[in-house]
Amino acid sequence: MSALSDHGMRWLSHSSLDLARVDIGLWSMRYLFGVRDPANAAMARGLAVEYGCQIAHTGGEFDDPAEEALKEFNKRTALGVDGEAREKERANIKPMVEQYLALFDGDLPKLEGYQRRVEIEIPGIDIPCIGFTDFDFEDAVIDLKTTKRLPSAISASHRRQGAIYQRASGNRAVDFIYLTPKKSVRHRLTDSDQDWLEVCETAKRLNAFLEKFDTKEEIAAAVIPNFDHFYWSSPQTRAKAKEIFGY
Fold it and tell me: Using CA atoms, how far apart are residues 41 and 222, in angstroms rounded to an integer?
């Protein structure tokens, strides 16, 4: 048994490992205390655009991918989402889907899989690392990112995510498609050995950290949450943090 499983963790993921690197306090609150952020407009935007792009590949003759994406966004933001933020993000849905379609110049490849679960072992860790790929094509695994600014390269965080997907998919090619309302780009992950090493070392060091504590309360008393980070912008999240960390 590892310290991770001793503390109730049944699996790891890119998002959990990356959060541990960024803010171990928030990681503790999410993964040990089970406190999750409420839905927000930006998260709903990404999920809705992804859904619309999937419809572009699999829908029928009369399905409009952008309209289906809007319906999905409306459903996900019907309750508990700030109205102003909702309207701002709603305006991004259609142009982002259109950017995706333009990237393929009307020649959409056959979609082999959608939200496929992948799993891989990390050496020395007794729980698996899992993920869900967005799109599977014959020649590559695709992860879709919606953003306000188009990156010139794959970010370090996304490279680690891609390293997991690549190894869990039999070393297939992994591409990241970034969509903004005005532009799109497709970047292929290459030379991911260092990124995979960072994934493995993060998991090992997280496990070694947890070994020092018997309870989640002891961990909460030892970590320093980074309340300056935008991750803590939700009033509900901040209120829960005060209960757990005492300030």
Answer: 33
In tens, the pLDDT along 121-166 reads 999 999 999 999 999 999 899 999 999 999 999 999 999 999 999 9
**In angstroms, rounded to a whole number, what is the distance separating the alpha carbons of residues 60 and 58?**
7
For residue 26, give its domain range: 3-37+111-245
> What is the DSSP secondary structure assignment for residue 122, as one 8-state letter?
-
Gap between the Cα atoms of 206 and 187, Å rounded: 30
Q: Is 228 helix (H, G, I), strand (E, B) or coil?
A: coil
Question: What is the residue whose two structure tokens read 């950290």?
Answer: 209
131 and 200 together in one domain: yes
CATH code for the domain of 209: 3.90.320
The 3-state secondary structure of 37-63 reads: CCCCHHHHHHHHHHHHHHHHHHCCCCC
Do residues 142 and 114 touch, judged by C-beta distance below 8 A? no
Tens of pLDDT, residue by residue over 87-118, are: 999 999 999 999 999 999 878 999 999 999 99
- Do 121 and 54 lie in one domain? The reply is no
- The answer to whether residue 80 scores a pLDDT higher than 90 is no
> How many domains does the chain divide into?
2
- pTM exceeds 0.90: yes
- Of 69, 84, 103, which closes a domain? 103
pLDDT at 44 over 90: yes
Q: Looking at residue 24, what is its pLDDT?
A: 97
Judged by DSSP in three states, 9 sits in: coil
Average pLDDT, the chain: 95
Any idea what the Cα angle at residue 133 is, between residues 44 and 158, rounded to 5°? 80
Residue 55: CB partners within 8 Å, gap ≥ 6? Answer: 63, 65, 68, 69
Q: Are residues 129 and 237 in the same domain?
A: yes
